[in-house]
């Protein structure tokens, strides 16, 4: 199962059915930042210096989902905004040459975010999570003990990882967080899926 936005609806579903986490083999979310890469901080997307948007807008829901017992894999800003996740000139040329609706759509999304001063990765984040669901080697995951800040105005929505060798809190949920991305493998999935004749036929 993929959750690509804030976790409000999923949290409500868990409240309605607390056994839901046991019914889902794996939950992959776009959310948080877990300290594996510096860009997780420099490219933070919440409305404060420390948070990611999907967690920030409903941190109580994120906290509930993180603690619910899902087999949860989080794709945080650490990898979702990594500099290697950028469309190269070669990628853009291939998409332009394909001249089909799906390639043009992605190029349009990327042009929109770039006009707003962001980089092309902003238009690729959700597809990274989809790629990880298809190919387990796109992302490397590591277990982390994590809490979600739900009160501080300064760090509301921050995903706080406890990495201490001693005194680590024992009550924190452990999830799998993406720590590295194989960008070549990701683009080897993404670009052909949009530009190949088979993808054109499916779109029609």
Written description of the protein model:
- The chain has eleven helices and six strands.
- The chain has helices spanning 8-16, 20-23, 39-42, 53-56, 59-67, 77-80, 89-98, 101-115, 125-134, 183-195, 197-203, and strands spanning 2-3, 27-30, 72-75, 139-148, 159-161, 174-181.
- It is α/β, with parallel strands linked by helices and 204 residues long.
- The longest helix has 15 residues, at 101-115.
- Helix 1 packs across helix 5 (59-67), helix 7 (89-98) packs parallel to helix 10 and helix 10 (183-195) packs across helix 11 (197-203).
- The mean pLDDT is 93.
What class, by secondary structure content? alpha/beta
The share of residues in helices is 40-55%
In whole angstroms, the N-to-C terminal distance is 26 Å
Shape: globular
Main sheet?
6 strands, mixed
Uncertain segments are none
How much is the radius of gyration in Å?
18 Å
CATH H level, superfamily name: Ribonucleoside hydrolase-like
Distinct helical segment count? 11
Under the CATH scheme, which class?
Alpha Beta
Examine the coordinates and then state which fold CATH places here, giving the name of the CATH topology: Inosine-uridine Nucleoside N-ribohydrolase, Chain A
Which sequence of SSEs, written as H and E, runs from N to C?
A: EHHEHHHEHHHHEEEHH
**Overall pLDDT score:** 93
Tally of strands: 6
In which order are the strands of the major sheet placed? 1-2-3-6-4-5
CATH architecture classification: Alpha-Beta Complex
Question: How many structural domains can be distinguished in the coordinates?
Answer: 1
């Amino acid at each position: 199962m993929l959750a690509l936005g804030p976790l409000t609806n999923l949290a409500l579903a868990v409240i309605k059915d607390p056994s839901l986490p046991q019914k889902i083999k794996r939950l992959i979310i776009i959310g948080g930042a877990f300290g594996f890469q510096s860009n997780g901080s420099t490219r933070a997307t919440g409305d404060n210096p420390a948070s990611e948007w999907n967690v920030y807008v409903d941190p109580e829901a994120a906290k509930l989902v993180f603690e619910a017992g899902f087999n949860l894999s989080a794709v945080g800003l650490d990898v979702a905004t990594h500099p290697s996740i950028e469309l190269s000139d070669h990628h853009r040329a291939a998409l332009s040459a394909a001249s089909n609706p799906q390639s043009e759509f992605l190029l349009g999304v990327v042009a929109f975010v770039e006009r707003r001063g962001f980089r092309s990765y902003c238009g690729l984040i959700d597809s990274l999570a989809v790629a990880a669901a298809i190919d387990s080697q796109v992302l490397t995951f590591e277990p982390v003990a994590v809490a979600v800040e739900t009160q501080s105005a300064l760090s509301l929505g921050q995903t706080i990882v406890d990495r201490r060798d001693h005194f680590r809190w024992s009550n924190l949920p452990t999830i799998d967080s993406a720590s590295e991305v194989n960008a070549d493998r990701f683009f080897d999935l993404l670009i052909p899926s949009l530009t190949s004749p088979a993808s054109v036929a499916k779109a029609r």
